[in-house]
């Protein structure tokens, strides 16, 4: 009888210990499975910055002239010809009713008679035509129609010219020309400009708005001519896709606005 009871007690102890061991092993396996997380399940790191998309100003293109050819008349021989700051397509967008057009003019009042700014619609009808006298400074100059003039219409194309008259007797002259298309100000662009999370020229550039991007950028040099950040932005702009503005002089003090 005693041996039977001892046998029963031994069997119960063996069963209890076996069940406990299996429970512990199951918990360890479950814990190990939970600790091994799939890397794809981990949330992205907040500090990781998104790469900025490269600027793109490529377009189908329109007839134009970015660099002035040989002079007619008695213009002085110069190392750097007049150059319009426009993409390879000779065209660009703006959201402005009175946009600005930038050129590099390597002439002074002692070398040429005057400069003429012309803006025409697609029917070649003059929207604006006005002569300007140059000063003794050479460099980047901006031309635009006055704020009181008729604004550009959204969705319309316009052709602009900058003509340089080497003397008062010459009918034709050196010139550059380009096209501008006024596009509507989208809600996305408007909100980004209001948020001011980056500079205006960067925002316009990201949206492919050429004339407003280069205008905002070059105007910033007026107050910060030695700013290295702006110099980097300038290089990014003139080397962007669809833009081939090479061998331009450094932007700095050679800055003029003509209205």
Automatic annotation (TrEMBL):
Residues making up the signal peptide according to the UniProt record: 1-21
UniProt keyword annotations, A-Z: Signal
Region of interest (Disordered), residue spans: 25-78
UniProt feature, compositional bias: Polar residues: 25-34, 63-77
Keyword Transport: no
Domain of life: Bacteria
Keyword Transport: no
InterPro entries: DUF928
Sequence ranges of Basic and acidic residues compositional bias: 35-46
Name of the protein this chain belongs to: DUF928 domain-containing protein
């Amino acid at each position: 009888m005693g041996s039977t009871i001892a046998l029963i007690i031994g069997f119960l102890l063996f069963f209890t210990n076996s069940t406990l061991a299996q429970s512990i092993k199951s918990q360890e396996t479950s814990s190990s499975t939970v600790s091994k997380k799939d890397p794809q399940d981990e949330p992205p790191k907040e500090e990781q910055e998104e790469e900025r998309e490269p600027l793109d100003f490529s377009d189908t293109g329109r007839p134009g002239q970015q660099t002035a050819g040989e002079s007619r008349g008695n213009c002085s021989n110069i190392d750097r010809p007049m150059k319009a700051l426009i993409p390879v397509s000779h065209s660009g967008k703006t959201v402005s009713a009175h946009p600005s057009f930038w050129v590099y003019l390597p002439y002074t009042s002692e070398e040429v008679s005057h400069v003429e700014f012309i803006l025409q619609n697609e029917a070649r009808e003059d929207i604006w035509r006005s002569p300007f006298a140059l000063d003794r400074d050479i460099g980047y100059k901006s031309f635009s129609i006055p704020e009181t003039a008729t604004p550009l219409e959204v969705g319309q194309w316009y052709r602009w010219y900058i003509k340089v008259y080497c003397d008062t007797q010459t009918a034709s002259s050196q010139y550059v020309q380009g096209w501008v298309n006024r596009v509507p100000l989208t809600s996305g662009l408007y909100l980004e400009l209001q948020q001011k999370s980056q500079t205006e020229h960067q925002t316009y550039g990201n949206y492919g708005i050429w004339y407003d991007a280069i205008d905002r950028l070059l105007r910033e040099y007026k107050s910060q001519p030695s700013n290295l950040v702006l110099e980097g932005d300038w290089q990014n702009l003139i080397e962007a896709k669809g833009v081939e503005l090479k061998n331009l002089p450094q932007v700095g003090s050679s800055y003029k606005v003509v209205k």
